[in-house]
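Entry type: protein chain
Record version: 2
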Amino acid sequence: MSLLGLDVGTTGCKAIAFDLDGNILSQAYREYPLLHPRPDWSELDPELIWASCRQVLAQAAQATPSDPVKALSVSVQGEAVVPLDSHGHPLYNFSVSFDHRTIPQFEWWQEHLGRDRIFQITGMPLHPMHSINKIIWFRENMPEVFRAATKFLCVEDFINFRLGAAPAMDYSLAARTMAFDVVNKLWSSEMLKQADLDESLLATVYPSGTAVGEVSTKVRDEIGFSHPVVIATGGHDQPCGALGAGCVHPGQAMNATGTSDVLCATLDSPQLTPKMLEGNYACYPHVVEPLYVALAFNLTGGLLLRWYRDTLCWKEVQQAAAIGKDPYELIIANASKRPADAQILPHFVGSGTPTLDPRSRGVITGLTLGLSKADLSRAVLDSTNYEMKLNLDTMLAAGITIRELRAIGGGAKSPFWLQLKADTTGLPVLSLKVSEATALGAAILAGCAIGLFAHPAEAPRAMVHPVHRYDPDSSNHEILQQKFLTFIQTYPRLKGLLHSLADRPGH
């Protein structure tokens, strides 16, 4: 028997089958492109996402004939939403998190309900990214699409629907819409009334790890599942990753370096305080009931490394192809072992927390003719670490204590980068036997749906295995702390200029 976690991200999807000890039995991955029909618009083709999911599910399932998949669950990016007609066909593309067309809707909420009230209801700091803004945008800018839509689905409920279940999502993803009451765990009548939206447009919500159907016979045949497969509610990718990293106690935090660089701290209760709102920290249900999570993030994160690879590292890409390696391995291996004088403000798609400024932009400072490629590679790595250090300091000031970081995602595969994280933050960083913790968290939830675990918090003892602890080096920490103090001056000093660049005609 195996459990399958399907991780559907912003730039690709991955299916991984696990045994009950948390070992990977098979996996498959497909990338898909972001679409930018206009400046600052970012979309994904829903049919391409579904086709990619079918492909990876088929590849993972067919590689485990002796361990057939019994249940699956989906971990997904947040906020993205797609309108469907009465036949379940998409009427437009998914609009993703860092699509900035919804700034007018963001401003409308600020005027009509205000940041404080919205945070108290939804646990979400007001921001253009949230799904409810995208739905209102359709009504105001594509009324023909809005009138034809019978559902607006996020990625989890869209995939569950295509697999064969009724549209269903869990509490953690529902929270990312900014239409969900995170204390009472239901769609917020106040938010929907204010937006003049009917709850029937949205999916039904359930706790994570709830069985909501079975994969349809048609899809099962397409994928190659040999037996009935239960569909379980999964969750937003960050709390799923926290579960897969074993973060099921307060004081533990997951650090995921993927498309975004994310810090997901485990809490025993919702913290909806003014300090949390000041730091723009979302607080919403964990996929492990009754816990909550607090989220800090740098939106660019791994996208910065991808941009760097595609724009400036063509030699590394060629070398990697020639020797059968991942180009990221070569970029990181060749990075300078000492901090560079150049620094990068990684706001390439706006800033994440604590400033959460969609009009900020990326900056490279300290360029000289003596700057080497190795220095620039190191600056890319350091920039994400500095942003995380800023968030850790701000979270501490908001009353959240974090004692250890558990690293997952692509960045967790590099011992050099993990040691840099420990040296920069001053906290121990644990690597895991399975760095693909997001898919593992989804698989654990699938196991809960068929009764293998009484509660998601039980599963980490059997399925999650830390393998190495990176303790901070005190001398390196002191050097990086001085660099960090320079880094945190960049955004406040350049904020006005960056806003003027963002506001120029055509953007």
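Comment: The chain has a mean pLDDT of 94.
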